[in-house]
Amino acid sequence: MKLIIGNKNYSSWSFRPWIALTVGGVAFDEELIPFNTEGRNPDYAAFSPTSQVPVLIDGDVTIWQSLAIIDHVARKHPQAGLWPDDANARSRAMAMSCEMLASFFALRGACPMNMRRPRAAIEVTDAIRADIDRIEVMWADALAASGGPFLFGDRFTAADAMYAPVVNRLDVYAHTVTQTSETYMNTIKALPAWQAWEAAGRAEPWIVEADEA
Asked: What is the pTM (predicted TM-score) of this model?
């Protein structure tokens, strides 16, 4: 099983399945093909039906899109525990994950994931603040229901993986967050998998100007 990813400094979509598989203890081969200066790479078309990364190649099956990759691996490797055991909690985790895919465009547009960005605040528009507020409500509700330290209890799940790039965004752009959010963010940043990805991202030589907010 091979996971093809983009730059570790910038590629939030690549980070999601990578951290899910890594924390879940699922063995995979990694191939990093960096973006060009515009955040794209025409070489992706050779293996990706969308000409984007990440892509998982599992035997004769090719899976694209971060959440689909995570779900494929979760079903094939249930021992990884990438979805909560409780059926209702699984549905909530899926809903949160899908909302990450479909929402928060103001935050994502203004604050690209950037592992080596010096921590500094930006101007926060009403739209960015609304995105952050919604994320914090979801995090707080999930943590209160599960008891934490992860969104759905004592195990890192797909939902945590889907929001891992948000942790970077809230951190390096110095957004104001609640104590509950800060504690959760620190839990995610303390993961060895997070720290390994961050270190690799910081060491990369490539600069993508489009992602340097």
From this structure: 0.97
